[in-house]
Write a structure and sequence with these properties.
heterodimer, A: mainly beta, seven-stranded mixed β-sheet, B: mainly beta, 50% strand
Chain lengths: 120, 106
């Protein structure tokens, strides 16, 4: 059974950094692209970042480009999202999800999410 | 960027009804279209991929159709567990979700 467990969320002030971690199990982690999807209160999901199965390709939504960095450690089955210069508009539940393939495919398994609140 | 627009935003229906949700893309996404179901406080769940392929374990009352820029999700006979919010997602050019359709009990 695929399991994805996010951690690292919390309440932070604008301008600070936060690192999210997703622990994956139940599948061959290195064979799949992975993604971080966020959902602000009352809004639809937004794909924030994607990393290919090899780690050689990454994508960021325009609003986080240059501030967020996605990475993966296949030896530990971990996915990361380094978030710098956080803004109020980054407040959301952040989900880790497994991409059903190497790159452009739907998201077939999701974690339970971790809440990031950016507020002074 | 490809924009996805769902209609209606809210849909009121009764148990046993047949309901249809529409999703339109701002440009062709071929059949690279998925549908998700989300319940309050939970992560989205994949229902349909490649416009009409049913994800494993999803009841057969759910079906998807369409190609290019117009797509539909149909629930043939609404069950109590189906009242939720539904999102379409294109994965032809990176990823974009629609704004959602909330299915309410009439």
């Amino acid at each position: 059974e695929v399991q994805l467990l996010e951690s690292g969320g919390g309440l932070v002030q604008p301008g600070v950094s936060l690192r999210l971690t997703c622990a994956a199990s139940g599948f061959t982690f290195s064979s799949y692209a992975m993604t971080w999807v966020r959902q602000a209160p009352g809004k639809g999901p937004e794909c924030v970042s994607v990393i290919s199965a090899t780690g050689g390709s990454t994508y960021y939504v325009a609003s986080v480009r240059g501030r967020f960095t996605i990475s993966r450690d296949d030896s530990k089955n971990r996915l990361f999202l380094q978030m710098n210069s956080l803004r109020a508009e980054d407040t959301a539940v952040y989900y880790c999800a497994k991409v059903n393939g190497l790159w452009l495919s739907p998201f077939d398994s999701w974690g339970q999410g971790t809440l990031v609140t950016v507020s002074s | 960027d490809i924009q996805m627009t769902q209609s209606p935003s809210t849909l009121s229906a009764s148990i046993g009804d047949r309901v249809t949700i529409t999703c339109r893309a701002s440009q062709s996404v071929s059949n690279w279209l998925a549908w998700y179901q989300q319940k309050p406080g939970k992560a989205p769940k994949l229902l349909i991929y490649k416009a009409s392929s049913l994800e494993s374990g999803v009841p057969s009352r759910f079906s998807g159709s369409g190609s290019g820029t117009e797509f539909t999700l149909t629930i043939s006979s609404l069950q109590p567990d189906d009242f939720a919010t539904y999102y379409c997602q294109q994965y032809s050019s990176l990823y974009t979700f629609g704004q959602g359709t909330t299915l309410e009990i009439k």
